[in-house]
């Protein structure tokens, strides 16, 4: 049974098994670079992104997509609108909305405003800085593309710093993507932030194309959906005006605001549209609009969010506001903006009025989301001129806007204060629910006209809008600035809180 | 007894005949049969040389008190007995004693019944052709077994194996049965023709023989006696007795140190599993899983684009969610699950071992006759406990009081016309309605079906097993969801070459699972006001209870037509080849492959969009997603075993090369012409991609292990591991890990044997070593952008993925452990006590950054140390052991403790408001709650210095008690009486948890119906009402600012922490073995009927559905299954 012959045969049988094993084992051990894995298909590496015209463009366009996707225009209009005197809030389900409405924000318990600007503002600034530094450090993209994209990135960095400083006052100024230094930044005074905004806009103006470009960054398109030179000038006009106000009425800045606005107004690409056509896609008045992105069922967040199809929503973020009585009463008789830009719906015995600048509740592809428009440039120039005591020039611009609304020329007293007050009023009825303009005007007016129409006098006594909203306006007006988010302060110890919170 | 059984078979006979037969039979029996009886123990000590069987029988009778039942004449055929045993169990002694005898024996009710063996079959010609069988006998670790009894069954013919485990025996013919027996091991029987010459027989240790149990630690196997590791094993019996779909759930309470948190009672729901606490602040804490040698991801493959009640798909960071990746495994296919805990067991896994290792081994074929097993069961499941919620009148009373407290007029129908949204109380809804929403939404009965079958068999050289299973479990929700269905196929093939040198094991398991559950877990909707309207109109359409053209009620079934389907495929396959180069020197390589595919569809037809008026018709749409994960692993190794004098040396050198790739694609399609087309992604007018991702992880390791034991007394094991992972950046890929394990079996010391003969095992163990934790998503060291299908100017965009730090490395876990294993009275009592201390440093976390950096965190190694210490106890006792009645008990107990030991610059870390140095990671920083102020009726708090205060963040926050288990464990009692066996498993957990106030809304706060106003537990009925009243709930309120602030603070205070301890009758398994006669009639073996129950009853003071899953999610269901299993 233990015959040698048999054993030998079996031995031969298993020899191949043995060699197979040895072969397989050694074969594996020879892969030296096994751990050096290729980058994933699904995740382009940063250096390769900015080495390529198309990919670099995609990184810049992301900012516009996210701004649209996050409904920044609607959120600013809605949140600042209820914080000011433009909108009546019906939403009682979301604490943040109720707190905003009552001007009673708390530093520590604020779900929506728990981070700077709903969380996204500094993200846009990071992306803009990443485009600037990415294009600087790599050579792959063409010079023309680099120039346009860098210009847009400087513009976007300025754009969001501008809104941040208007909401929070002094804010960290973030000019790099280096998180090791950025994580402990302190707040930069508002005037310096605005000065940096002006600088960035000047840089952007020098880099950007005169025409609107398409996705090649060089060819011209009719779509006014990317920043160009005029877009930078338009925001520059506004930023110089604000800077002048906060920098002790610096006349040089008013002058600069007037100059920038004039450049835009005299640009033949732009003209005032009839009221019904202002907010249409690529209207002649549009300086910069956000294009509708692909995955939504509406043209603009404002159309979707403000238009009421029934009584206002009490439990959601959208369709939960109506035009306030203060704003309804602010319109002069026969102001066509009241009929053209305000809609209504009657449920039972109650009529609800809502912002109706955008007419499309659903996706019709006829309206784009307006960011900057010519109408505001006339009012900026009017104000800058009035501040420089050029009353005639101011009234000329004011009347252009009034006449488009079907109103007669300004007929009040022509002293500086009265004219400035008239311009503030005109801005109220012209720019309502556009990116929170009203709130920033009321806030600026506290500097310009401490006893006239400003945030303190409108929200506090005697107008007492804040009380009507169910809140209390503090005499020291600390609510002019929103609280610095507690979550930021817990990780960045250099961030101080605004007084009062 | 015998007679009774005999008579039962003849029930058709008339009673008269029956009685005559009985009497006759009795008389005949009495004539031949010698019956005797005595008393005492079940262990036997014998020292017999060539003694007569009769003498041995008498000896056993005297020592045990058992009677024998046999025909005196048979003893003439008996062979002389040679047997020396000391304190051996009766069963083992009888087996040894009768191995050569021409009798079989059976123990029936304290009586040992002998019967003549069947005469071996002679071949048809009557010419038996004797053949010789040769081979080797090994134990489970691959060690040859000397002195194994090899016998031709029913004859005196036999031999024993030599020192190398080899034997040679000539038997009557091909059909002769050869038996292999060795005390402490399960005997094996094989027909001679199934024993190829030179084949290997592996004997398996008997189940209650803890010392001999072989533990497999992935890379190598070792005998438990000589192990210096801490490994817990849960066997197939424990797993299969529990009616669970996910085999991991069968481990709850069974393994000390293993903490399993079920997320939901939905079929297939994910569970969070931690071994010995949290080691990592932000990184994954999941154990490393291996199924049949193949690593399996613990992350759910569920897509983030397909929402269901199971939650979105998991990720490492959020601890999972979605469908459990283990649910697709068939619990009935599992032979055992081993949990590796200490450094000695886990450091061989290097960067993957820090959180422990769970090894799942499936069943393999066994040599012997071809057997067919089947197992069928059916059952039901229900929510075992409903909460006491307010009825309509209590609810309205609460609301009235809230308005009265606030001094606000109660809303009326005319307010509603002016836009008041409080429809539950202002008259828009019928306030005389009452619905117990728990009964409506989660009160149905789920149905379970389970069918299993297998064929197995083989000869000494080749064994096979094929098994298949199907199971189905539905839900308790009102609509008819298919629930979870799964089918599986498992096979294994083992072969040993005739010369014993070459071994091959090929196994594979394929599983297919479909899951159909609602879009959202309806349990969250049980807070609907009790007067909420009916869910349906009489015509069967959804009711929105419109008022003024708008809905007043968010119908919880609004998503009922929003369907979620998931189907998953899973293939796990392994091939292990080994070749013996020289005696003791073995070359082995294992090749594993795993393929998991998951398809998910979320369909949202136009019929179930948002309520009126905000339901534009274009909202219908579907998401389709598909994920594939593939992995392969090759593990070559060389092992060497050598006996040197009294010492045994084991050396292992091995390597691992592993790759895991993952890819997923998700698409959407919207705006369908009609709902019938909704399953076809091409039918929508808008289509696009939601996401795409792919990733690749590679891993290499070199491992070495040297083990040396001297005289089975002193043991030293050294392990070293160098491994590298592609998840880390250049220069940070490789790391070294190692461990030392020692053991001293002091019960083998002569002094101990002499002084304490009752001590059957005494072993001290200690181990220390390092492991790493590199559980993180790939590519994080690279600065990358993600493509996004959203387009601007018809160009898709790229979004940055976050801030990048290329220099991070893995966390290092240092594990120290000491253990004591004791066995008393021949291991009738066995006790294991372990103390461990694990310290994890170099914490890899998403370091919190302010948003001004653009992102909220960056991956960094932080100089922080987390310590887990604990005491674990396992106790097994055999309380009662007789032929008829057996009772054994197992207890597991775990006392864990977690502590954040150090954290450099903690005060500026971003974690200072969540954690506290020197406290557990399970603590929360909370305000100190002191009760309801009897004067004002609002919640009161104190500052850190104890003064009453309106608390402020963060200075008034203090660390809470750890919100986790204080201790936990399980108690298993197993009883068997004749054919009936009963296992009862009780789980106990002493813990703190969040109370109902954390999950329910503010009592009295109304809003737009179910947006604000919601039902409450009756526990709030004692709310403060009048001055001076001592109450536990503050005054009801709707709008009052102070009260609201107090409530907000209460939610962030110690007031919402409550005792969530419970004792749960987790499992009861009752089975009845069918009488032998019935089985014979049906040609069956091991036929039994069983009744298994899971989560039967929970004893707790916690207010909620189930303290095991606090919150408003579906609790684990009470499941009762009735089944039958048999083999033939």
Quick take:
The complex is a heterodimer of chains A (501) and B (1128). Chain A has helices spanning 4-29, 46-49, 53-69, 72-83, 95-101, 121-137, 143-168, 179-182, 190-207, 229-246, 251-265, 301-306, 325-330, 336-340, 374-387, 391-404, 416-430, 437-448, 455-459, 465-468, 486-491; strands at 87-89, 286-290, 321-323, 342-347, 350-355, 369-373.
Overview features:
heterodimer; A: 21 helices; 6 strands; B: 1128 residues; mainly beta; 22-stranded antiparallel beta barrel; 13 helices; 10% helix; globular
Q: Give me the count of strands of chain A.
A: 6
Q: Please tell me the overall pLDDT of chain B.
A: 84
Percentage of residues assigned to helices of chain A:
40-55%
Globular, elongated, flat, extended or rod-shaped: what is the shape of chain A?
globular
Spans where pLDDT lies below 50 across 5 or more residues of chain B: 1-13, 20-40, 120-126, 314-320, 1008-1012
The multimeric state of the shown protein is heterodimer
Q: How many DSSP E strands of chain B?
A: 52
Mean pLDDT of chain A, to the nearest integer, reads 90
Biggest interchain interface, per-side counts: A-B, 102 and 95 residues
Task: Note the total helix count of chain B.
Answer: 13
Roughly what fraction of the amino acids of chain A lie in strands? Answer: 5-15%
**What's the arrangement of strands in the largest beta sheet of chain A?**
1-3
Q: Mind summarizing the main beta sheet of chain B?
A: 22 strands, antiparallel, barrel
The radius of gyration over CA of chain B amounts to 34 Å
- How would you describe the shape of chain B? globular
- Any low-confidence stretches of chain A, pLDDT <50, length ≥5? 1-10
The major sheet of chain A is characterized as: 2 strands, antiparallel
Distance between the termini of chain B: 25 Å
- Radius of gyration of chain A from CA coordinates: 29 Å
Instruction: Provide the structure class of chain A.
Output: mainly alpha
């Amino acid at each position: 049974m233990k015959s040698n012959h048999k054993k030998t045969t079996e031995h031969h049988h298993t020899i191949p098994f043995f060699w197979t094993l040895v072969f397989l084992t050694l074969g594996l051990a020879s892969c030296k670079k096994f751990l050096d894995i290729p980058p994933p298909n699904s995740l382009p590496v940063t250096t390769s992104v900015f080495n390529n015209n198309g990919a670099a463009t995609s990184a810049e366009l992301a900012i516009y997509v996210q701004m649209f996707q996050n409904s920044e225009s609607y959120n600013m209009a809605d949140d600042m609108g209820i914080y000011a005197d433009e909108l009546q809030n019906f939403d009682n389900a979301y604490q943040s909305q109720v707190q905003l409405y009552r001007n009673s924000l708390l530093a520590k318990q604020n779900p929506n405003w728990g981070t700077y600007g709903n969380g996204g503002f500094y993200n846009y600034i990071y992306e803009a800085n990443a485009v600037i530094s990415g294009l600087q450090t790599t050579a792959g993209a063409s010079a023309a593309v680099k120039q346009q994209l860098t210009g847009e990135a400087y513009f976007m960095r300025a754009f969001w710093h501008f809104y941040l400083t208007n909401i929070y006052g002094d804010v960290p100024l973030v000019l790099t993507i280096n998180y090791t230094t950025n994580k402990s930044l302190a707040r930069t005074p508002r005037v310096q932030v605005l000065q940096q905004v002006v600088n960035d806009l000047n840089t952007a103006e020098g880099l950007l194309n005169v025409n609107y470009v398409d996705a090649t960054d060089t060819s011209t398109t009719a779509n006014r959906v990317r920043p160009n030179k005029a877009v930078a000038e338009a925001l520059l006009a506004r930023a110089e005006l604000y800077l002048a106000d906060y920098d002790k009425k610096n006349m040089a800045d008013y002058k600069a605001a007037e100059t920038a606005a004039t450049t835009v107004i005299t640009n033949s690409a732009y003209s005032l549209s009839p009221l019904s056509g202002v907010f249409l896609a690529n209207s002649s008045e549009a300086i910069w609009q956000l294009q509708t992105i692909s995955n939504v069922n509406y043209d603009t967040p404002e159309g979707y969010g403000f238009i009421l199809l029934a009584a206002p929503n009490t439990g959601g973020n959208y369709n939960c506001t109506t035009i306030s009585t203060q704003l309804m009463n602010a319109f002069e008789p026969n102001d066509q903006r009241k009929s053209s830009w305000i809609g209504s719906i009657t449920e039972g015995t109650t009529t609800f009025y809502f912002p109706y600048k955008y007419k499309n509740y659903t996706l019709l592809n006829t309206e784009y989301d307006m960011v900057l428009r010519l109408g505001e440039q006339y009012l900026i120039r009017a104000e800058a001129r009035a501040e420089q005591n050029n009353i005639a020039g101011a009234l000329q611009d004011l009347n252009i806007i009034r006449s488009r609304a079907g109103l007669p020329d300004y007929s009040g007293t022509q002293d500086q204060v009265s004219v400035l007050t008239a311009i503030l009023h005109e801005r109220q009825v012209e720019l309502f629910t556009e990116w929170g303009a009203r709130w920033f005007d009321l806030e600026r007016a506290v500097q310009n006209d401490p006893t006239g129409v400003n945030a303190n006098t409108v929200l506090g006594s005697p107008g007492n809008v804040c009380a009507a909203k169910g809140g209390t306006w503090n005499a020291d007006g600390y609510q002019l600035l929103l609280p610095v988010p507690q979550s930021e302060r817990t990780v960045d110890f250099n961030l101080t809180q605004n007084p009062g919170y | 007894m015998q007679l009774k059984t005999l008579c039962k078979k003849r029930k058709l006979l008339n009673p008269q005949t029956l009685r005559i037969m009985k009497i006759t039979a009795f008389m005949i029996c009495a004539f031949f049969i010698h019956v005797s009886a005595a008393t005492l123990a079940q262990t036997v000590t014998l020292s017999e040389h060539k003694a007569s069987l009769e003498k041995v029988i008498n000896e056993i009778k005297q020592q045990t008190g058992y009677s024998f039942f046999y025909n005196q004449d048979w003893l003439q055929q008996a062979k002389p007995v040679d047997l020396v045993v000391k304190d051996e169990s009766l069963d083992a002694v009888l087996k040894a004693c009768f191995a050569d005898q021409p009798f079989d024996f059976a123990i029936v009710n304290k009586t040992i019944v002998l019967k003549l063996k069947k005469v071996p079959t002679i071949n048809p010609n009557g010419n038996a052709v004797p053949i010789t069988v040769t081979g080797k006998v090994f134990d489970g670790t691959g060690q040859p077994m000397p002195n194994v009894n090899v016998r031709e069954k029913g004859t005196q013919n036999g031999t024993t194996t030599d020192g190398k485990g080899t034997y040679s025996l000539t038997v009557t013919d091909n059909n002769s049965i050869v038996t292999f027996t060795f005390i402490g091991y399960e005997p094996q029987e094989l027909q001679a023709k199934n024993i190829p010459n030179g084949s290997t027989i592996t004997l398996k240790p008997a189940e209650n023989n803890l010392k001999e149990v072989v533990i497999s630690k992935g890379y190598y196997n070792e005998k438990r006696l000589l192990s210096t590791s801490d490994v817990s094993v849960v066997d197939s019996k424990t797993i299969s007795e529990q009616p669970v779909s996910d085999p991991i759930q069968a481990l709850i309470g069974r393994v000390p140190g293993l903490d399993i948190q079920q997320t939901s009672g939905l079929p297939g729901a994910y569970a969070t599993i931690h071994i010995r606490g949290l080691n990592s602040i932000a990184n994954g804490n999941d154990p490393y899983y291996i199924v049949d040698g193949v690593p399996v991801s613990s992350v759910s493959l569920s897509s983030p684009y397909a929402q269901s009640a199971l939650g979105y798909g998991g990720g490492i960071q959020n601890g999972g969610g979605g469908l459990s990746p283990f649910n697709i495994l068939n619990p009935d296919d599992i032979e055992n699950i081993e949990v590796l805990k200490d450094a000695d067991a886990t450091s061989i896994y290097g960067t993957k071992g820090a959180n422990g290792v769970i090894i799942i081994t499936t069943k393999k074929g066994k040599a012997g006759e071809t057997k067919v097993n089947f197992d069928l069961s059916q059952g039901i499941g229900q929510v075992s406990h409903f909460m006491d919620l307010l009825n309509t009148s209590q609810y309205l009373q609460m609301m009235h009081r809230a308005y009265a407290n606030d001094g606000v007029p109660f809303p009326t129908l005319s307010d509603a016309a002016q836009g008041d949204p409080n429809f539950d109380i202002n008259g828009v809804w019928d306030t005389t309605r009452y619905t117990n929403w728990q009964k409506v939404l989660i009160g149905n009965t789920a149905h379970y079906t389970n069918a299993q079958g297998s064929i197995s068999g083989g000869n000494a050289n080749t064994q096979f097993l094929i098994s298949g299973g199907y199971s189905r479990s539905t839900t308790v929700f009102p609509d008819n969801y298919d629930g979870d269905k799964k089918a599986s196929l498992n096979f294994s093939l083992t072969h040993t070459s005739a010369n014993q040198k070459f071994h091959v094991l090929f196994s594979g398991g394929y599983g297919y699972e479909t899951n159909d559950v609602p879009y959202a877990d309806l349990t969250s909707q049980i807070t609907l006001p009790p007067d909420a309207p009916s869910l349906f109109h009489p015509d069967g359409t959804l009711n929105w209870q419109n008022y003024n053209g708008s809905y007043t009620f968010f119908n919880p079934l609004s998503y009922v037509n929003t369907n979620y389907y998931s189907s998953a495929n899973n293939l796990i396959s392994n091939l292990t080849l080994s070749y013996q180069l020289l005696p003791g020197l073995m070359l082995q390589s294992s090749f594993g492959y795993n393929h998991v595919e998951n398809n998910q569809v979320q369909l949202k037809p136009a019929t179930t969009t948002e309520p009126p008026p905000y339901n534009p018709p274009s909202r219908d749409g579907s998401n389709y997603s598909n994920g594939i994960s593939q992995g392969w692993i090759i593990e070559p190794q060389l092992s060497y075993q050598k006996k040197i004098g009294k010492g045994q040396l084991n050396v292992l050198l091995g390597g691992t090369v592993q790759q895991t790739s993952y890819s997923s694609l998700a698409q959407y399609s919207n705006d369908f012409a009609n709902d019938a087309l909704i399953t076809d992604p091409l039918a929508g007018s808008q289509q696009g991609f939601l996401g795409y991702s792919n990733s690749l992880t590679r891993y290499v390791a070199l491992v070495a292990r040297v083990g040396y034991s001297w005289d089975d007394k002193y043991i030293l094991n050294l392990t070293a591991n160098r491994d590298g992972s592609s998840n880390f950046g250049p220069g940070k890929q490789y790391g070294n890990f190692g461990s030392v394990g020692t053991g001293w079996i002091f019960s083998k010391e002569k002094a101990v044997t002499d002084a304490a003969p009752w001590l059957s095992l005494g072993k001290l163990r200690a181990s220390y070593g390092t492991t790493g934790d590199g559980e993180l998503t790939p590519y994080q060291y690279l600065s990358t952008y993600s493509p996004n299908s959203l387009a601007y100017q018809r160009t898709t965009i790229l979004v940055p993925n976050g801030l990048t730090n290329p220099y991070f490395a893995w966390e290092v876990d240092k594990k120290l452990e000491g253990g004591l294993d004791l066995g008393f009275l021949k291991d009738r009592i066995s006790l294991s006590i372990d103390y461990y201390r694990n310290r994890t440093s170099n914490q890899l976390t998403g370091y919190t950054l302010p948003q001004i950096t653009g992102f909220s965190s960056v991956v960094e190694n932080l100089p922080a140390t987390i310590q887990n210490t604990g005491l674990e106890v396992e106790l097994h006792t055999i309380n009662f052991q007789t032929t008829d009645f057996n009772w054994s008990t197992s207890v597991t107990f775990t006392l864990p403790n977690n502590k954040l030991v150090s954290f450099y610059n903690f005060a500026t870390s971003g974690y200072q408001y969540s954690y506290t140095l020197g406290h557990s990671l399970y603590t929360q920083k909370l305000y100190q709650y002191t009760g309801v102020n009897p004067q004002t009726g609002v919640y009161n708090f104190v500052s850190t210095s104890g003064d009453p205060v309106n608390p402020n963040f963060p200075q008034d926050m203090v660390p809470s008690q750890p919100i986790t288990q204080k201790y936990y464990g399980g108690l298993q009692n197993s009883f068997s009486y004749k054919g009936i066996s009963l296992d009862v498993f009780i789980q106990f957990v002493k813990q703190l948890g969040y109370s109902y106030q954390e999950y329910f809304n503010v009592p009295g706060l109304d809003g737009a119906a179910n947006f604000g106003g919601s039902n409450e537990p009756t526990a709030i009925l004692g709310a403060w009402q009048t001055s001076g009243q001592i109450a536990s709930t503050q005054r009801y309120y709707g709008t009052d600012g102070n009260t609201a602030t107090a409530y907000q603070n209460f939610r962030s205070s110690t007031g919402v922490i409550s005792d969530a301890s419970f004792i749960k009758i987790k499992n009861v398994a009752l089975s009845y073995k069918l009488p032998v006669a019935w089985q014979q009639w049906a040609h069956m073996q091991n036929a039994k009927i069983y009744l298994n129950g899971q989560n039967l009853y929970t004893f707790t003071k916690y207010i909620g559905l189930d303290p095991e899953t606090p919150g408003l999610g579906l609790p684990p269901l009470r499941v009762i299954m009735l089944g039958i299993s048999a083999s033939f």
